[in-house]
Amino acid sequence: MSAEILKRACEGDRDAFSALIETHYDFIHAVAWRWSGVASDAEDIAQEVCIRLARAIRGFRGNSSLRTWLYTMTLNAVRDHQRQAARRSREEKRLANDPLYSSPPPEHDGSGDDALWAAVRTLPEKQRDAVLLVYAEGLSHAAAADVIGCSEKTVSWNLHEARKRLKDLLRKEAV
Asked: In the chain, what are the domains?
């Protein structure tokens, strides 16, 4: 994508913004899917990022790369989506215990994630983000640090801790 299209999009040019979305949508969706692990959630998250991008594009100053900015925006949308899902789940459990609203639990579709990535998604947020950025996205520790907003050493430490935790998790799962 050319710097000119980005500049025009930042200035409010709708055609340039459409080109920007078209160029980066697959990237946004892929990141959302890797973080959420659910295709339908990834679609919702990607759509939310596009909406947020439309509102925020005029504020992009180029202090980081557009890709870093999109990572950050997508990760924030994933976290927001996960918080909303947790709130919905708590509310559903509360209502399930209420005799006026109780109904059978929804059926699961039976689709399973790869055990490793499913285990990664159970890690604490900072460890999970470091693992996904470095190993799933292929970013360097420095680039991951830019996206997360921490030091490169913090990314390395989170990866170290994540490896230990994943080793234990996967060992327990294998037993």
From this structure: 1-110 (1.10.1740.10), 112-175 (1.10.10.10)
